[in-house]
Amino acid sequence: MLATFAFLLALQGTAPKTDTALLSEVSAIQPGQPFRVALKIKMAPEWHTYYLNPGDAGQATQIKWKLPAGFTAGPIQWPVPQRMDFQGIASYVYEDEVLLIQQITPPKSLKPGTAVKLGAHCTWLLCSTGCVPQSSDLSISLQVGAKAVKSQSGAAQIEAAWQALPAVVSSIQPAASITGKAVTVLFTGLPEATKVQFIPADVDSFGANEPTFSGKSGELLMSLPLTAYAKSAPKVLKGILVRPSGPVWIETPVR
Amino acid sequence: MKAVIKFVFAVSLAAASLAATAAKVSVGSSAPVFSATDSTGNKVDLSALRGKFVVLEWCNWDCPYVQKHYRSGNMQALQKKYTDKGVVWLTIFSSAEGYPGYASSNDLKKLGTQKHMASRLISDSEGMIGKAYNARNTPTMFVLDPKGTVVYMGGIDDQPDPDPETLKGAKNYVALALDEAMAGKPVSVKTSRPYGCGIKYKD
What is the residue extent of each domain of chain B? Predict the structure, then answer.
């Protein structure tokens, strides 16, 4: 595994160093067999980076892959962020350390016995009270085998982070519609209706706006207002429903 | 105990006034009026600016998204172009003292000249103007027509990124709104998501 120190595009002299590394769950890949990789970002204390929906300010971390021919990368699997509020300006952030996992699919035509190099140009905004854009160019070299081989530390770290990701729970049935300048969602199949939060994934529609909830016997009604800057209602509502028994990924058409 | 009660009271007051005014600012609504003193010591009274197009720009020198537009000269060029056409351009600094982007009127006296800005600079470190407009990050932009109606509010362009490379081919919504409105045409893009650094308001 190649660990590279972050390249600081420090515009201010006080910006702390951020450590980044690319992890892979396999040290040898199997032709045509998807595997998971992760960008690991280790931040200095009191500094943070941003979720897909940064909220009122900030910017989501970006990963631009430079992959060999025939390889494809899936979307980033964003962990549950924490909400940070400063005098009414709220953001969805990660502190300390975050793993951004993606699935890579290699082509079937790879020849066992060869090696491949996966590169990634990563950019993120690091903020405390002020902000600094940072970036790093990372790469990872992997063997091609007849069978995939688990990596020593990467596999465990990626699996642990994967377990904490929002899950798709088919028994939770949301029905979303637009009501004036808010999206209304009726959740059924949600027994623990009282202690939930919703983190919208869509910054353009919702930013840091928080929903209100009302419930009645086994049903939960959520109303999530659009921001004053939203051009139109989203066609699909995406976000994380945070509940005591674990986060759930919600993705449902808005009718 | 007294201190705690005072704190809670102050916060709820601030929240109430923010909610009361913020809800009203939208495209097509009347822009909240304010009066302030600019960095040259001249009074700025928004209600006295009826009859002119007005741009409000929220600024923070320490913010990389603002720096993208100033180090490239993009913001200064826009200010020059439109103030030459009679637009009043107000650049507002709402960061509280002790936080990044804080600028006193004295600081602004020098900075306006150093940075070759054609706009009028206003220190709003108490956050009164920023909160009245519900400005949340820098740069956030508003365009007001001669009746004092908001005709555009939001980001400066369609490139929410601090990389100066993203200025190439960016669609500047403020220029678009001014060009259309000043030609008597309807504004085609009335709002977009403002992007940048969160404004650190006074406690």
Answer: 6-198
**Contact (CB, 8 A) for A172 and A25:** no
Tally of CB atoms within 10 A around B100: 19
**Cβ–Cβ gap B199/A204 under 8 Å:** no
Å from A178 to nearest chain B CA? Answer: 19
pLDDT tens digits for range B22-47: 456 999 999 999 999 999 999 999 99
Pairing of strands A89-95, A149-150: unpaired
Please state the CATH superfamily assignment of the domain spanning residues B6-198 in this structure. Glutaredoxin (3.40.30.10)
What is the per-residue pLDDT across B99-144, written as a single tens digit (0 to 9) for each? Answer: 999 999 999 999 888 999 999 999 999 999 999 999 999 999 999 9
How far is it, in rounded angstroms, from Cα A237 to Cα A175?
A: 10
- Distance CA(A61)–CA(B103), nearest Å, equals 30
pTM of the model: 0.90
**Measured between CB atoms, does B102 come within 8 Å of chain A?**
no
Interface residues of chain A, partner chain B, Cβ below 8 Å? 11-12, 56-59, 86-89, 91, 123, 125, 127, 129-133, 203-204, 207, 227-231
Q: List pLDDT tens digits, range A94-118.
A: 999 999 999 999 999 999 999 999 9
CA distances to A30, A186, B51, B175 from B31, in Å: 62, 36, 14, 19
